[in-house]
Amino acid sequence: xxxxxxxxxxxxxxxxxxxxxxxxxxxxxxxxxxxxxxxxxxxxxxxxxxxxxxxxxxxxxxxxxxxxxxxxxxxxxxxxxxxxxxxxxxxxxxxxxxxxxxxxxxxxxxxxxxxxxxxxxxxxxxxxxxxxxxxxxxxxxxxxxxxxxxxxxxxxxx
Length: 158
Known about the structure:
6 strands; mainly beta; six-stranded antiparallel β-sheet
């Protein structure tokens, strides 16, 4: 019986990423990714600092190599933005790549057969096409008399 068993182990390739690199990462549980700077890179994890948008605050997230290897992370990184590398979440093998299935798992609707969900409200027909609606406010210059000109004293043009 063997006392030591050799197993393949996942590890980050430190020749391809190091401290100071720009990194955008999105965990499978996040709606949006976060962009930041790699502050620590080891074979077992990456630490990324980012600005969360609150005053003078800095936050960080950690990418364990085990989660990245399982496909839980979508990662883009670059040293100087001249070349951007990607490591993505594994795509469902049953999902076609041509975009027929929506990200929420539903089929793409046929827009020709679908009625609008929220039709625009329709005004009732009054038989007065081409006329202005009746104005109710008395503060308008046009309703003050004098055609909206003059000193605003109101009255008629006699």
